[in-house]
Amino acid sequence: MTTIPTLTVSNPIDIRWSHVSCTVLSSSKYGLEYDRVKVLHEIGLSSPLPQDESFYAPPANRAIDVRTVFPDGNIVSFVGQRFSDLQDELSKYGQAVAEGNVAEMNRIHDLMKSTTMLSPVLFKAGTQVLTFEYELALHPMEGTTSDFELTLLAPMPSFRPSGQSQITVLVELPSSNNLAFNAQVLEAVGYQFDPTTGTMTGEVPKMVDGDYGLRRVIVWNWQVDPFFRIQYRYQ
Fold it and tell me: Which of 115, 120, 194, 229 has its CA 20 to 30 A from that of 213?
């Protein structure tokens, strides 16, 4: 099965729920070279933060080009990384250098590249719901002019669903009913995901998948870490 790079977090934060909402705007059809994706990611913790914590997220004033942040475009898996977890990875890098472990050095280097265009966001002690709001820039897939791919990982590496948790992802895309931005969904798959190995092990069934007016709406709901891949094409 496919694997994706991920943090090895020694002490993840327990969460009860996570909700990711993504709205794809067809900006490539009105003057830009990419589609904008507005993302709202809310995370409900099992208990309030015992101390101030910083997490990484894209700056709110511009759409992040996923190609420049991480080669597979999977920036969302790195949004919300806890600062202290990244510090742990840096200490592992030093150990890998001392041991001459090139594979481990390359793994950590790739992870760190994902944070180069992110900014720390501070949440105060006592906060129980974390909110990240940002935009992504989706350029056409290599070799095409009208095919796009959005990948999502929910919740995030620094968090761990606990108890009867709920993870929900809602994606709004342009639909085939929209004559101005007529789009066809080529693939929309949710995978069960093992955060310790980065391996996708099975599929998550869709709860909703259909055209509603001018938008195509797809919803997944799950209780463990899921990974999602959506590909669409303008006609």
Answer: 229
